[in-house]
Amino acid sequence: MYIQGFVVPVPADKKEEYRKVAQTFVDLMKPHGLVEVVEAWEADVPDGKVTDFRRAVKLEEGEKVVISWVIWPDKATSDAAHEQMTHNMGMDMEMPFDGKRMIWGGFEPLVVYGRD
Q1: Where residue 29 sits, what CATH number does that domain have?
Q2: DSSP 3-state assignment of 31?
Q3: Domains of the chain: total
């Protein structure tokens, strides 16, 4: 299992546009081995004393924090799927957020509970 994690600032009034972009990503990646995607809209994101989600993405007035994770069978499948998407499908879709403030990374599981 390989997990990609993302935190992104999204203008509150672009929630539906963001949902559509996320759904398009799922639809494009399913044939390439995608296992699971969760896109979660801010519901309770407190301000921290040292750091927090808001500071991590330099949240601006009128924006919400979105956290998501994408699960692949392994890193090789993820890399191949992203390569296919970049070369064959193009990345000319307009994003409803400032991608320069998005943070992301790839992770190997340490503890997994609740999955078969």
Answers
A1: 3.30.70.100
A2: helix
A3: 1
CA 56 to chain centre: 14
The model's pLDDT over 59-82, given as tens digits with 9 standing for 90+, comes to 999 999 999 999 999 999 999 998
CA–CA dist 42, 66 (Å, integer): 6
On whether residue 77 sits in a domain, the answer given is yes
Looking from the CA of 50 toward its CB, the CA atoms found within 13 Å total 0
Rounded Cα distance between 4 and 16, Å, is 22
pLDDT reading at 98 higher than 90: no
Is residue 116, in this structure, part of any structural domain at all? no
Please tell me whether the overall predicted TM-score, pTM, comes out greater than 0.90 for this model.
Answer: no
In the DSSP assignment, the letter for residue 86 is I
CA distance 77 to 85: 12
Q: How far apart are CA 23 and CA 16, in angstroms?
A: 10
Token duo for residue 25: 């990503």
Q: Which two tokens stand for residue 91?
A: 């990345």
Task: Kindly state whether residue 37 falls inside one of the protein's structural domains.
Answer: yes
Rounded CA-CA distance 112/114 in Å is 7
